[in-house]
Structure formats: structure tokens, C-alpha cells
Amino acid sequence: MTESPVFDTADTDRTLLIVEDDKAFLQRLARAMELRGFEVETAGSIAEGLARVDGRPPAYAVVDMRLGDGNGLDVVEHLRAKRPDARTVILTGYGNIATAVTAVKLGAVDYLSKPADADEVMRALLRSDDDRAAPPENPMSADRVRWEHIQRVYELCERNVSETARRLNMHRRTLQRILAKRAPR
After folding, report:
1. CA distance 107 to 102
2. Cα separation, 96 vs 119, whole angstroms
3. What is the pTM of this model?
4. Which CATH superfamily is domain 15-126 in?
5. Which of 47, 86, 164, 165 has the fewest CB atoms within 10 Å, i.e. is most exposed?
6. What is the pLDDT of residue 10?
7. Which pLDDT tens digit goes with each residue over 87-131?
8. Gyration radius of the chain's alpha carbons
9. Is there a contact between 4 and 119 (Cβ–Cβ < 8 Å)?
């Protein structure tokens, strides 16, 4: 692992809000970002994140897409309204093009798949708008992307196999076999 730069916070606003409902991941990421020179506040829910934005809109935010009480895009949109210059990164375990496009339209500067490490998050937050993201070292396989899409639709259909199969134009038994298997690499 490479050593990360520590920033001089005297001349720039390094306030960072992390909205994540996985407590262990939230604590690790918060500590790592503090070591990288950010002044970190955390929130474990959408409601808590919105309250933090209302109290003191941060310069940076890292927001989980799916939280127990709603969609992280609500926090992104609210932050953009309160502080248009804020830079936000979305984290998700359920990568999908439609939500990535929506996140960027609402003001997110990047969209990272979990598990993302602190260096990736920092690079995404601080990258200039002219810089392009480097291609991933280990991109998901086509089988994994398909599996993630099926899992997402399954969750959106409230874990109803018949409705998910209908929406995916797939036979119900085929879907059941796919759901019973482990995720591909």
C-alpha cells in the first residue's frame, strides 16, 4: 500500500461527511480519511446525513447509495442545494449504469463500487474535473455484472422471485437456480 499524502488544512476547507450504515466500514473509512487531512463527520442514515448537511454543509461527502432509511441520492441532492461547490462520491455494492448517471446528474463527481479503500475515495474526491478516472485494476467480470443486476432487480421487487423473473424476462426456475448459487468473481 502506498503512503497517502496528508494535506495542509490551513488554507482549504477539508470538511467531509461520510454517510454509511455499515458501522465497521464507516469507522474505518472515517479514521483513514482523518489521517489524510480531512475533518470528518459521520452519519449512519439518510435522516442523520440530511441533518448534518443542514447544520454545516461539508466541502466533501462520501455517501452510500442504499441505506436502511432510503436512497443516498437524497443526501447528494440536498448537499448540492445547500453547497453547490461540494464534491460528492457515491459508494455502492450494487453498481448500475442508471443510478450512476443519476448520481452524476445530481452532482456526484464519482461512483465507486464497494469495497473501496480510502486512497480510491480520496483520489475521487480530489481529482480535478479535467482528469479522467483510471480504468479499474480488477474490473468485475461480465458474469458478476449480470449477477449484480439480477440481485438488484430482485431486491427492488422486494425479493419476489416471480415478479423478478417477469421483469427480467426470465423463466422463474432459471432465476431460482441463479439466486441459489454463489456470486461469480
Report:
1. 9
2. 23
3. 0.66
4. Response regulator (3.40.50.2300)
5. 47
6. 43
7. 999 888 766 666 777 777 787 888 887 777 888 889 888 887 666
8. 18
9. yes
